Amino acid sequence: MSTTVTPTAAPAFPAGSVLGYPRIGPRRELKKALEAFWAGRTSADEVEAVAADLRRRTRTRLAELGLATDAPAIPSAFSFYDHVLDAAALVGAVPARFADLQDADGRLDLAGYSTVARGRGDDLPLEMTKWFDTNYHYLVPEIGPGTAFRYASDRPVAEFAEGLADGVLTRPVVVGPVTFLALSKPSEDAPAGFHPLDRLDDLLPVYARLLTELAAAGATWVQLDEPALVSDSVGVPAEALHEATTRAYRALATELARPDRPAILVAAPYGDLGPALPVLAATDVDGIAIDLVRGEAPTVVVGGLAGKTVVGGVVDGHNIWRADLDAKLAVLERLETLAARAVTVGTSTSLFHVPHTVEDEPALDATLASWLAFADEKVREVAVLAEGLTEGREAVHEQLLAASDAVRSRASAPGVVRPEVRERAAGLTDEQFRRGPFAERKSAQAARLRLPALPTTTIGSFPQTPDIRRARAAFGKGELTAEQYEDEMKAEIRRVVELQERIGLDVLVHGEPERNDMVQYFAENLDGFAVTRNGWVQSYGSRCTRPSILWGDVSRPAPITVAWSTYTQSLTEKPVKGMLTGPVTILAWSFVRDDQPLGDTANQVALALRDEIADLEAAGIGIVQVDEPALRELLPLREKDHAAYLDWSVRSFRLSTAGVRPETQIHTHLCYSEFGQIMDAIDGLDADVTSIEAARSKMEILGDIAAAGYPRAVGPGVYDIHSPRVPGEAEVTELLSEAVRTIDVDQLWVNPDCGLKTRRYEEVTPSLEHLVAATRTVRATL
Ligand code: GLN
Ligand code: ZN
After folding, report:
1. How many domains does the chain have?
2. What atom of ligand 1 comes closest to residue 757's alpha carbon?
3. What does the record give as EC number (predicted)?
């Protein structure tokens, strides 16, 4: 590692650092404080105090775990809600409908910031969308020709100063200007053809001001996150992104020189920089953090790196397995041939995608726990690798051995490889991935199900009432016996069936009362999975999920849903739809083993589901829905990787569903409506009926489906369940009439956009009544 110091060299960068850390708190302290504030139970000052305490504990913890406090190893990367919203607040970019929340200097207080995130009355909040290929959702800023950029928040500077006052030199983290604009959408008043990136030159002075303020406060390094550079899916052509990068960092790194600014680290998590690496290297930024878990280590010397620090992101910020430190060290050593000024160790992404610490999981099997690294354990891994890199392998010999032992233990532990699962997967034939011709299925299903035109149904869940939650909690604590719990759930199913019959729906569901979560429920009932107690991960704002851990070969010890579905069917003459979560979604919303291709793991899950479907079919259930809302989510960021992903994901869905007889109808539900890139894949699923979100976009997607000549049935959502609003009967009639004009009526089903579990009966009952009434009206016109 070169340590040549020239007068113009950037200040030293620490040998080990992390790109970010969980911000919700080990006991979800921030969530609780925010929700109390929103409910009017606490003051903004109290939330600020909780947040300051959390930041202080984070700094202390990271220092204890081995990160330097006198060099900028510890990120200052707190957020009350979302880091993209923070960037919007920083630059004063608030949509016109919320302009009244800003003070004369463009600042938002905590209440105003919360309102932009959550909406008020008819003022919709910023739209929420997925953050790269993670399960985190960010708020989409709205930028127009008139957006008045200005330096409107001193939070990054204040939080840096807060650390310094505690004796910790942190590294402020802010979303970079290119990514900020690339992820924004044009404001409502923007003319056609406008893109927020058109405003780059107007935005850069605000970033420049931030950098000078940070330098004045004593910051030596700042981290600007530019993950847009690893993706082909941000809606901006690569050339435009590259040109913007060059322009942005000419302004921030060349025209603004040290010491008027801190040294700049540009971080590019979530994937391979590819052609963007030489573009970044050619700028005057002082360091580049590259993702070496998802991305490739550059093997050729890239011009421009010679004066720069390279942060090798070898520790996976996105998954929870202990790293093979020996192998990681080798990757870092190879990086030294790049002839950068320095090579240091980092995480591939921020650690906020993983829970706080394995130490908080006493109930987890000890062997499994010994294979895991949550955020804190990953910080230790970074510290060990940093020591290995600076002091030599010998200095960390013991730790390297312990890590290799853990990897070996995982490879050979019982349950990780199960011969019977392997044999079954190895013996799969093409036949098992294929159903018979659709025309034949269609007539067999019509004869069996005898449904009216425009059949009505729901997506599966009915409201999870406080009573249901209370019963589940009591069962968890042992206050209810299994039998009592089952009785309560059955009573709920009876209520849900009665309601659906009274409303007049055609295909009924059981309502999913027994499921805490559509993935965890299956994880708890399949071999090869574990669940955590405190493993919360921020999903958006104050919302957290607790992903399951898929650690071993997957199989189904016993039928899971069959008793619930047959009980439901016993209550009604109408067909009851069985309800399962598909293999891709189970993988997407869990932490998945990284020791074999995802497609192999997906096929194991698919075979377990295939057995479940066979049992449902044998028990007389004529319709089974296999939900795949995450199919679009897992789509890789680089286009060159799409085909391979779509191949294994579609195959696994087919494997799970293709074992049924022609008269058994397979449904799938895909949630979102951005299907442009995956239309062929949807066709490939070969489901008899596909339900999708369509209410908000006013059935737009149907035009594409019709134009593509899609032959099977679709259920475009006619009721937007994401809001408490009850759609009127006339409104649903209008949407349905539009649907009937767009696509063959034979192909149409009628359903809400998604499941109803987050809604209340006061909203759901009238909405479904309107849905059925509207359907009758439209049927009468056919
Ligand atoms: N069947 C699930 C439900 O209704 C589907 C949920 C989803 O698509 N996310 O809740
Ligand atoms: Zn959905």
Report:
1. 2
2. 10
3. 2.1.1.14
Q: What is the DSSP string of 157-224?
A: HHHHHHHHHTT--EEEEEE-HHHHHHH-EE-TTPPTT--GGGGHHHHHHHHHHHHHHHHHHT-SEEEE
Residues shown for the chain:
782
Q: How far is the CA of 513 from the centre of ligand 1 (A)?
A: 12
8-state DSSP, 112: H
- Claim to verify: residue 393 and residue 305 sit in the same structural domain: yes
Q: Which residues of the chain have pLDDT under 70?
A: 1-8, 673
Phi-psi region of 193 (alpha: psi -120 to 50; beta: other; left: phi over 0): left
**Number of the ligand 1 atom closest to the C-alpha atom of 755:** 4
State in Å: Cα 778 to ligand 2 middle.
25
Catalytic residue flag (residue 722): yes
* Residue that has been written with the tokens 């898929």 in this structure: 550
Query: Which of ligand 1's atoms lies nearest the C-alpha of 459?
Result: 4
Containing domain of residue 396, as a range?
29-412
CA distances from 6 to 11, 110, 302, 477 (A): 10, 44, 21, 64
Annotated binding residue at 122?
no
Helix (H) or strand (E) holding 733: helix 729-742
pLDDT tens-digit map of 395-450: 999 999 999 999 999 999 999 999 999 999 999 999 999 999 999 999 999 999 99
Position 58 in a domain: yes
Last residue of one domain, picked from the residues 392, 412, 432: 412
Q: What's the pLDDT tens digit per position in 481-537?
A: 999 999 999 999 999 999 999 999 999 999 999 999 999 999 999 999 999 999 999
Residues 119 and 245 in one domain: yes
Q: Whose CA is nearest to atom 6 of ligand 1?
A: 755
* 317, 349 Cβ separation under 8 angstroms: yes
> Strand 623-627 and strand 170-175: pairing?
unpaired
Report yes or no on 574 lying in a domain: yes
4 domain-assigned: no
Residues 648, 637: Cα–Cα separation, whole Å: 16
The bridge status of strand 543-545 relative to strand 185-186 is unpaired
Type of residue numbered 242: H
pLDDT tens for 563-573 read 999 999 999 99
Q: How far is it, in rounded angstroms, from Cα 240 to Cα 276? A: 11
Neighbours of ion ligand 2 (CB under 5 A): 629, 671, 754
461 and 347 in a common domain? no
Q: Are residues 405 and 467 in the same domain?
A: no
pTM for this prediction: 0.95
Give the position of tokens 């069985």.
578
Nearest residue (CA) to ligand 1, atom 4: 755
Q: Tell whether 215 and 257 lie within a shared domain.
A: yes
- pLDDT, tens digit, 9 for 90 and up, residues 443-475: 999 999 999 999 999 999 999 999 999 999 999
Same domain, residue pair 247 and 321: yes
454: its two tokens: 């425009």
Task: Judge if the beta carbon of residue 222 lies within 6 A of ligand 1.
Answer: no
**What pLDDT does residue 103 have?**
97
Has residue 403 been placed in a domain? yes
The answer to whether residues 364 and 503 belong to one domain is no
Whether residue 669 is annotated as binding a ligand: the answer is yes
Q: How many Cβ atoms from other residues are within 10 Å of residue 595's Cβ?
A: 14
Which residue of 462, 510, 521, 627 sits with most ligand 1 atoms within 8 Å of its CB, as the best mutation to test the pocket? 627
For residue 64, count other CB atoms closer than 10 A to its CB: 11
Q: What is the CATH number of the domain that holds 106?
A: 3.20.20.210
Same domain, 403 and 531: no
How far does residue 627's CA lie from ligand 1's centre (Å)? Answer: 7
Choosing from 458, 459, 628, 672 the residue with most ligand 1 atoms within 8 A of its CB, the one to mutate for a pocket test is 459
Name residue, tokens 């296999």.
Answer: 626
Alpha-helical segments (H) within 394-503: 397-412, 419-426, 438-449, 466-476, 482-503
- Domain termination site, one of 412, 433, 457: 412
